[in-house]
Amino acid sequence: xxxxxxxxxxxxxxxxxxxxxxxxxxxxxxxxxxxxxxxxxxxxxxxxxxxxxxxxxxxxxxxxxxxxxxxxxxxxxxxxxxxxxxxxxxxxxx
Length: 94
Known about the structure:
By secondary structure, the protein is of the alpha+beta class.
């Protein structure tokens, strides 16, 4: 699975692709210079249960760490990932 990332300095998106097909996306918007808010995570029905959401979350966490940023999770999937995985708490905005 390949994760593509696009950011226009106001909004961004992580797009998961498998064999050239879009299989999921995670969108966010900037809430400050070093904080972004994940507002949506979606996975195509054919790819549900295959770890697409987790891969998107991993990409967002890596981006946050590399950019020295924090994440505000407002979509239910991102909130659940932070609640279940203490190892990514370092990028959670408090």
